[in-house]
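Weekly modeling sync, notes
Attendees: S.R. (lead), two postdocs, one rotation student

Agenda item 3: backlog of single-chain predictions. S.R. asked that every request posted to the team notebook include the full sequence so nobody has to chase files. The rotation student volunteered to paste the first one in as an example of the format we agreed on. Action items at the bottom.

Example entry:
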Amino acid sequence: MRLHAGREDLHAPKADAAGADAELTGAVKSFDLFAIAFDDSGRAKEYQVRVTASVSLKTLPDEKVLWENQSFTFQDNYALATSAASYVDRENEVIDSVGEKFAASLVSSLLEGF
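Predicted structure, as returned to the notebook:
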């Protein structure tokens, strides 16, 4: 599952639903980014990212809900190097990392629900 910035939906590669027993769907409700630590120059050196999504796992074809969380929240902190040479826009790198960790956290929560 990939989390794409600027989009509202969680995307996973589409599989042929004909042989599937269940479908996982979701929508990002919020994506928040907060500076939580600063260097001596006042530049942010650590951020906290929080993603909240509505997620549902349903059986196919009858769509019986197996697991659902309307406010699934993932939160993590990211440190940045603050030297002038390395203080560049790392937004895409952080978004990819958040997407991977969000997906892993979601799978873990889903499996713990059974």
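Discussion: group reviewed the output briefly. The chain has one domain: 2-112.
Action items: rotation student to repeat for the remaining queue; S.R. to check formatting next week.
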